[in-house]
Structure to design on (247 residues):
């Protein structure tokens, strides 16, 4: 069974049609690259999946059940997590504190309860080991590389036992070595059975890690193909409009 299905989903803002009649499905442990030029509708599509926007038309279904989401917390409750391009991390806090931000563990009850730092450090360490990341729970985020910061952001999604992780340009503005770290983290999510939607402008990254590529242009889906059946040249043509629709 598909973990996620979009069925004829559209979104308009007044007279502006941002997404038009898009359908696709996502299986557990599948990595799908979502590509398109600026204004193609990628972000709007992902924000509907993440609960930021409600579709104007169409249905979002998860594991066979129709979803009606009013805000991001509704998506998180269903196991849908998003890693934003800016990561939304607190630089002055440790990796563990960022992983548990807003979901801190406590010892004791009532007014006498205190933060359980030992348990949070231990659980964060387990998550980073699962991701095979060198990130350490007690390190300050402001001292970390781009790849380590991504590990912290992804660690937050694993804390909530996510079924789907939406990643917005995770390899933008980082070094080649750090890109390799992030792609490795995506593969770790895939190997744990978590579905990943990778929004990216970087063709080599998508073709390196994705199972399928979906291309958006002017709010419409113009391709949904297995990576092995496409090529960077075809995807570039679909993005620019040189190729109208994938064969």
């Amino acid at each position: 069974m598909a973990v996620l299905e979009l069925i004829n989903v559209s979104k308009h803002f007044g007279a502006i049609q941002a997404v038009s009649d898009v359908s696709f499905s996502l299986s557990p442990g599948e990595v799908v690259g979502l590509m398109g030029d600026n204004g193609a509708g990628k972000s709007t599509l992902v924000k509907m999946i993440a609960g930021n926007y409600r579709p104007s038309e169409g249905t979002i279904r998860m594991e066979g059940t129709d979803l009606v989401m009013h805000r991001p917390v509704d998506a998180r409750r269903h196991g849908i997590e998003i890693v934003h391009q800016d990561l939304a991390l607190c630089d002055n806090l440790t990796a563990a504190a960022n992983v548990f931000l807003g979901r801190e563990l406590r010892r004791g009850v009532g007014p006498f309860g205190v933060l359980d730092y030992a348990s949070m450090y231990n659980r964060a360490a387990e998550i980073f080991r699962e991701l095979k990341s060198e990130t350490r729970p007690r390190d300050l985020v402001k001292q970390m590389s781009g790849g380590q910061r991504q590990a912290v952001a992804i660690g937050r999604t694993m804390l909530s036992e996510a079924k789907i992780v939406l990643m917005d340009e995770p390899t933008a503005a980082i070094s080649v070595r750090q890109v390799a770290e992030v792609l490795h983290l995506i593969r770790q999510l895939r190997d744990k059975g978590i579905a990943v939607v990778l929004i990216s402008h970087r063709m080599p990254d998508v073709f390196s890690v994705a199972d399928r590529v979906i291309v958006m242009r002017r709010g419409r889906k113009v391709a949904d193909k297995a990576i092995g059946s496409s090529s960077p040249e075809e995807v570039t043509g679909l993005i620019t409009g040189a190729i109208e629709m994938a064969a």
